[in-house]
Write a structure and sequence with these properties.
This protein is an alpha+beta fold and 381 residues long. It is 46% helix and 14% strand. The protein is built from ten helices and eight strands.
């Protein structure tokens, strides 16, 4: 069976308004996403038909190449319906920027199929040996979010004192169900293994040697910075719905021998505090994303101050979103501990997000180094 060709028009930018119906469907499917540890096929097919897994892929190879601010708004909206959906959406889309780093012929080969979705994972161990026509790769890679609906998988490993990226069809590797977790269950972030797998040379590239081919401002941005802003949007989406659920519960619940939660001073204080935390974190992220994006669009460059600002705002939003969820969890009381209560899922998901690379406290150190006039360390900006 021949792969479906991508024929999407590039005349109109996809915005958050275009996913309103999808957001409602995702919310309805949230329980099954969590229980089955994957996004339902019907939702994936709908997203593919809308081009929602190629939003950051260059137009030159059949992508949508939408703006950063529209992208983050869509990410937050989907995440408000389900954290795992938002996580996979961001992970799979940000990987699409690899199309600007690999050869143009390879990018066209990969994204010629309308169904193309990428997943990847950091190596636990990897060995790469040169063979005729390409490389033989052996190893294991973990945390491959969206692995159960991806069509291609990207692996990295060290070869000849440099990091080599290799892309291969989903079916070419062995998938390992290692995803027994509490939060973000629906991401299906399985591990994959390869044993002396042949990868042709034309399906490999070295990012450190890549020459900028795409001229759009999107491809100026470090992929880790895109991941950070995207996952911060996921966290804020989760926190918003958790806080809304706490407000809803407060209007209906009277704990044993107590007044209605809404009428209790502590509840009023907590809700006010949580709204301030969420609103300030959301505004901070949007401000820093807008500043970086507008300058990039106008001047075709990224200033270090803008990169550092978005890095800091992203980590801050992830951390503060978890605090908002903690407040919501506390407000809802003993009902929060039950699996069938929405807050329980939000609690698990929000704290799973904080444990990922983009939520690390070390990013505060990097930002502090910059603001103190030192050379910032790390590569997450």
């Amino acid at each position: 069976m021949m792969p479906k060709k991508s024929t999407r028009s590039q005349q109109r930018t996809i915005t958050v308004d275009d996913v309103a119906d999808l957001v409602a469907r995702v919310a309805d499917a949230s329980d099954s996403i969590n229980e089955d540890r994957q996004i339902p096929r019907g939702l994936i097919d709908s997203m593919v038909s809308q081009g929602l897994f190629r939003l950051l892929v260059p137009r030159s190879v059949g992508g949508e190449e939408i703006g950063l601010l529209d992208y983050l708004a869509i990410t937050q909206a989907l995440s408000s319906a389900d954290a795992s959906m938002g996580w996979c959406f961001n992970q799979n889309n940000v990987l699409g920027t690899m199309a600007s780093l690999m050869s143009e012929s390879l990018a066209k080969e990969i994204w010629a199929d309308a169904d193309t979705i990428l997943s990847n994972g950091p190596p636990q161990h990897a060995s790469i040996e040169p063979v005729k026509g390409g490389y033989s790769i052996t190893g294991r890679w973990n945390f491959s979010s969206g692995s159960r609906h991806s069509t291609w998988v990207v692996a990295i490993g060290r070869y000849d004192d440099q990091t080599l990226s290799l892309i291969m069809p989903h079916a070419d590797v062995e998938w390992i169900d290692s995803w027994q977790v509490g939060g973000l269950r629906g991401t299906g972030s399985f591990s994959f293994e390869a044993n002396a797998l042949f990868v042709p040379a034309h399906r490999t590239w070295v990012e450190a040697r890549a020459v900028r081919r795409e001229k759009g401002p999107l491809y100026l941005i470090n992929r880790r910075l895109l991941f950070g802003a995207g996952f911060a949007s996921v966290a804020l989406g989760v926190a918003r719905t958790a806080l809304d659920e706490a407000i809803k519960t407060s209007l209906a619940k009277s704990p044993q021998e107590q007044a209605l939660l809404r009428d209790q001073v502590q509840t009023q204080r907590d809700i006010g505090n949580a709204e301030a935390l969420w609103g300030s974190s959301d505004a901070y992220l949007k401000e820093k994303a807008r500043t970086l994006w507008e300058h990039a669009c106008e001047h075709d460059e990224l200033r270090m101050a803008d990169r550092m600002g978005l890095r800091l705002a992203s980590t801050w939003a992830i951390r503060k979103a978890a605090e908002v969820v903690d407040i919501a969890y506390s407000v809802c009381g003993a009902t929060s501990i039950f699996e069938n209560h929405p807050i329980q899922r939000k609690f698990q998901d929000a704290h799973a997000i904080t444990q990922q690379l983009q939520g690390r406290f070390e990013h505060y150190e990097t930002a502090g180094q910059f603001y103190l006039g030192l050379e910032p360390q790390g590569n997450a900006h």
